[in-house]
Amino acid sequence: MQRIAVLLAGLAALAGGRGTAQQAAGTALWRLAATTLPLPAALATGTAAVFWNPAQVDDSARIQLGIEGIQTPAAIGASGMLAALRMRAGSIGQIGFLFGRVGLSDVTRTGDSPDPVGSAVPIYAYAVGTTWSRPAAGMALGVTVAYHETRLDAVRATRFTVDVGASRDLASRLRVAAATHFLSSFSSDPAQDLYAGVEYRLWQGPLWGDRGVVRGRYGIAFGHGFPADHQLGAGFEFGRVVALDAGLTREGGYGGTGWRPAAGIRVTIGKYRVTLARDAGVNELGSAYRVGVDARFQ
């Protein structure tokens, strides 16, 4: 998995100096969390999806709460959680707060032998911030301002990021979206990403007494100092109850490219939407999983 190589390179740099290397290592941890997204990040929807694209304008409820948990295979040992709270604010649009943390576990100090010595080494990245979104000029717009901290043992690095996102429906079949991810400079930087995606409705019609929809998707992640990631995928929706998503990502990396599939299911039950997703794993490392719950309150 190319993400592991990038992460290890960043963590090695952490031990040797401060600055952009620390931030790149933190963002690499977040990219590990994103491996369970079965659709392009720019096209992600939901309360916690403000982590990937702040242009979320679903105003079907007064208050929206989203929580997601991520677990990678034991060979990687990363886990994390995302949480976001959003609420209507009249003519201002929607405002909210977000928190996320992802880290590596079971990393221990060693001496002359491989046996652990002393306590575990803390390796994590977290983000906390505010978000705003509203419809304007026929599109959805959003902005997120966040504070980040990355830590490796006793070394800490902090920064602020400002991300913007947009999404627009063109005609009745096509949707395009774009967003920045952890933007803190206007140069190509491994500590940040640029996302873009396009979604096209391939079919819509009656199905088993309800409505079925099939969508095709393409997405790209770039601007991070190594070759771009490309994702092709499809989604199927049955009424407003069940949605299935699947995607195949061609990951860029410093040492070449790799392919990674992912799939997920979303089920809506009353005011709750439950999401289960996983990637298929590569190089026999095992799969990463994501479980999420969205709740809407009037």
Quick summary:
The chain is mostly beta strands and 298 residues long.
Task: Give a written overview of the molecule.
- A 14-stranded antiparallel beta barrel has the order 1-2-3-6-7-8-9-10-11-12-13-14-15-16. It has a two-stranded antiparallel sheet with strand order 4-5.
- Helix 1 (2-16) runs antiparallel to helix 2.
- A hairpin with a 3-residue loop joins strand 8 (155-170) and strand 9.
- The protein has 298 residues and is mainly β.
- It has one domain (2-297): Beta Barrel (Porin), CATH 2.40.160.40.
- It has helices at residues 2-16, 20-33; strands at 63-71, 78-88, 94-104, 108-110, 116-120, 123-136, 139-152, 155-170, 174-181, 193-207, 210-222, 229-238, 242-251, 258-269, 272-279, 289-297.
- The termini are far apart.
- 10% of the residues lie in helices and 56% in strands.
- The protein has two helices and 16 strands.
In percent, how much strand structure appears in the residues?
A: over 45%
**Largest sheet report:** 14 strands, antiparallel, barrel
* Order of H and E elements: HHEEEEEEEEEEEEEEEE
Q: What do we call the CATH homologous superfamily?
A: monomeric porin ompg
Question: Which descriptors apply to this entry?
Answer:
298 residues, mainly beta, Porin, 14-stranded antiparallel beta barrel, two-stranded antiparallel sheet, 2 helices, 10% helix, globular, disordered N terminus
